[in-house]
C-alpha cells in the first residue's frame, strides 16, 4: 500500500526540489503536451476508466513525456530505466527524501502525490483517483488535499490577471490559485483550515521557487483580521452533501456553509477597485433566482455581480453521480437515496456549476447590477473577458452615455456570428442570437429585432449621425436606435472609439 505524501520539505532541500520540478518540466511535461499525447481536447476530459486505453494506445512509445504522464498524472508505476531517463540521480533522491517518490522491492517507481500540469506550471497535490493508488482503501482520508480538478482549472482560467498589490486565496488546498496569483501580485496570502493543505501549499511554493506567498492555517478570513485585498479567489467546499466525508468537498447539507460566509465577508475584505472570483456549485430552487441568494449573503453591500452558469445537473443525476457504495448494489442504492433525499429536503431541483465575480458598484452609475449568462466552460484563459464584462456594463450605465456617443464612433467588438430562427410562412423572425467569435467564453446573446438591425448596420465604425441616416432606411426612430446601442454596449457586442 502506497502511503500519501507528507508534503514536508527541509529548507536545505527546497532548492533541489525546485530543480527537480524544473527538470521534469523541461522534458515537455505540460498541459498542452498531456492533451496531445492522451488525445483529449481539454485536460478536464481525462477519465480514470480510460487509463488502460491511455497506456496501451497513447503512451505505447515510452519516451520521457510518456513516463512523466504515467508516473505523475495517471498514478502509474514505471521501471527504473524509465525513471533514470526522466530524472537524474539528484532529482530522484530529493523526490524520495521529500516523500513524493517511492521505489518498491521490484524496482518500480510510484508517486505518492500527483504533479498536475496547469498551463506551463506544475503543482503537487493528492491524487485525483486516490482509491486507485491505495488498494483496499474504502474511504478517502478526510484531510485529503483537493486535486487540480475541473473547477480548479475553470477558476484559474477565469481569474483576472491584472497586476495587484495583494491577493487572498481562501480554501487554498494545493495552493494552485495562490501560486498563479503570485505572478501578478506583490504578495499573496493563502488560507486553509486543513493543516495538510497548508503544508501542500508551502511545499508547492518551494517547488515553484515562489517567495511572495504566505500560507496561514485558519477559518476563512479569521487569520487576516480586517485587511482588504485587491483580488480574492476561492474554490470552497460546495457540495450539498448528506455526509461530512471529505473536508475539501462537502459544504453541509445545503452546500452553502462555507461559501455563504465567504460571500458575506467580501464587503469587509475586498478593496475598492478589487475583484473577488469564486468557482462553486449552487443548488437551485424553482422560481428563486440565484442572484437573490447572493444579494442576501452580501447583506445589502453595493456590489456588482457577474454569474457565469457553466453546467446544470438535475437533482437525480447529481445524486447518482455523488453516491458511494463500491461494495454492493444495496450500499450504492442506499447512498443514492440519502443524496436524493437531501436535495429534496433542500428544495433543489438542480445544481448549477457557476463562476461568480464581484466588484464594488460605482454609485454614480445607479444601483448595483447583476448579470447572469450561460456559457460553455472555458478551455483557455478568459480573465480579460470577465473584466471586459464589468467595463461594458459600466459604460452602458453611464448617465451621460448619449453625450459620449455624440463625439464617438460605434464599431463591432469583433467577428460576430448571428443565428436566426423564423416560422415558415411568417415574414417575422422568431428570435436572433449573436455570439462573439474567437472568444474563450462562448456566450449567446438573444437580440431584439431593433438590436439585430442596428448591429447589422454597423459594417464599419459609424458616428451617431451616420447610424441615424442608415437606420432611417429601416424605419427605426432615433430613440430606439440609442436604446439598441446602449444594450449592445452592455452585452459587449459593440464598443466606442
From TrEMBL:
GO terms for cellular component: eRF1 methyltransferase complex. GO terms for molecular function: protein methyltransferase activity; S-adenosylmethionine-dependent methyltransferase activity. Keywords: Methyltransferase, S-adenosyl-L-methionine, Transferase. One of its GO terms (biological process) is methylation. This is S-adenosyl-l-methionine-dependent methyltransferase. Gene3D superfamilies: Vaccinia Virus protein VP39. It comes from the Bacteria. Residues 153-282 form the Methyltransferase small domain.
Amino acid at each position: 500500500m502506497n502511503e500519501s505524501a507528507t508534503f514536508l520539505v527541509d529548507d536545505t532541500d527546497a532548492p533541489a526540489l525546485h530543480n527537480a520540478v524544473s527538470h521534469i518540466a523541461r522534458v515537455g511535461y505540460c498541459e498542452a503536451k498531456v492533451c496531445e499525447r492522451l488525445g483529449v481536447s481539454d485536460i478536464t476530459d481525462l477519465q480514470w476508466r480510460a487509463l488502460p486505453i491511455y497506456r496501451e494506445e497513447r503512451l505505447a512509445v515510452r519516451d520521457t513525456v510518456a513516463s512523466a504522464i504515467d508516473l505523475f498524472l495517471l498514478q502509474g508505476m514505471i521501471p527504473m530505466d524509465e525513471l533514470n531517463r526522466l530524472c537524474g540521480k539528484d532529482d530522484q533522491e530529493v523526490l524520495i527524501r521529500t516523500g513524493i517518490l517511492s521505489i518498491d522491492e521490484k524496482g518500480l517507481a510510484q508517486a505518492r502525490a500527483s504533479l498536475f500540469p496547469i498551463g506551463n506550471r506544475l503543482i503537487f497535490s493528492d491524487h485525483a483517483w486516490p482509491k486507485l493508488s491505495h488498494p483496499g482503501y474504502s474511504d478517502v482520508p478526510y484531510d485529503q488535499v483537493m486535486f487540480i480538478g475541473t473547477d480548479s482549472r475553470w477558476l484559474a482560467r477565469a481569474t483576472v490577471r491584472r497586476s495587484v498589490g495583494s491577493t487572498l486565496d481562501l480554501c487554498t488546498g494545493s495552493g494552485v490559485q495562490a501560486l498563479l496569483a503570485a505572478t501578478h501580485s506583490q504578495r499573496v496570502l493563502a488560507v486553509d483550515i486543513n493543516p495538510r493543505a497548508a503544508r501542500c501549499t508551502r511545499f508547492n511554493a518551494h517547488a515553484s521557487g515562489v517567495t511572495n506567498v504566505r500560507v496561514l492555517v485558519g477559518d476563512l478570513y479569521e487569520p487576516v483580521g480586517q485587511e482588504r485585498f485587491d483580488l480574492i479567489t476561492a474554490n470552497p467546499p460546495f457540495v450539498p452533501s448528506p455526509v461530512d466525508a471529505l473536508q475539501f468537498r462537502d459544504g453541509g447539507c445545503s452546500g452553502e456553509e462555507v461559501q455563504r460566509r465567504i460571500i458575506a465577508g467580501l464587503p469587509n475584505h475586498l478593496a475598492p477597485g478589487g475583484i473577488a472570483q469564486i468557482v462553486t456549485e449552487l443548488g437551485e430552487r424553482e422560481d428563486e433566482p440565484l442572484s437573490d441568494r447572493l444579494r442576501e449573503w452580501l447583506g445589502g453591500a453595493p456590489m456588482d455581480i457577474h454569474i457565469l452558469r457553466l453546467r446544470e445537473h438535475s437533482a437525480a443525476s447529481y445524486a447518482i453521480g455523488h453516491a458511494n457504495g463500491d461494495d454492493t448494489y444495496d450500499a450504492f442504492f442506499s447512498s443514492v437515496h440519502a443524496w436524493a433525499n437531501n436535495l429534496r429536503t433542500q428544495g433543489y431541483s438542480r445544481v448549477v456549476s457557476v463562476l461568480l465575480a464581484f466588484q464594488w458598484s460605482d454609485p454614480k452609475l445607479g444601483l448595483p447590477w447583476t448579470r447572469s449568462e450561460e456559457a460553455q466552460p472555458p478551455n483557455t484563459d478568459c480573465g480579460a473577458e470577465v473584466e471586459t464584462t464589468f467595463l461594458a456594463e459600466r459604460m452602458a450605465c453611464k448617465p451621460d452615455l448619449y453625450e459620449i456617443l455624440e463625439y464617438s464612433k460605434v464599431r463591432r467588438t469583433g467577428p460576430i456570428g448571428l443565428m436566426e430562427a423564423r416560422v415558415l410562412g411568417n415574414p417575422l423572425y422568431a428570435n436572433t442570437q449573436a455570439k462573439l467569435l474567437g472568444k474563450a467564453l462562448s456566450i449567446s446573446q438573444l437580440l431584439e429585432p431593433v438590436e439585430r438591425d442596428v448591429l447589422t448596420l454597423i459594417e464599419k465604425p459609424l458616428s451617431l449621425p451616420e447610424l441615424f441616416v442608415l437606420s432611417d432606411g429601416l424605419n427605426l426612430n432615433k430613440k430606439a436606435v440609442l436604446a439598441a446601442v446602449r444594450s449592445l454596449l452592455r452585452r459587449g457586442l459593440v464598443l466606442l472609439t
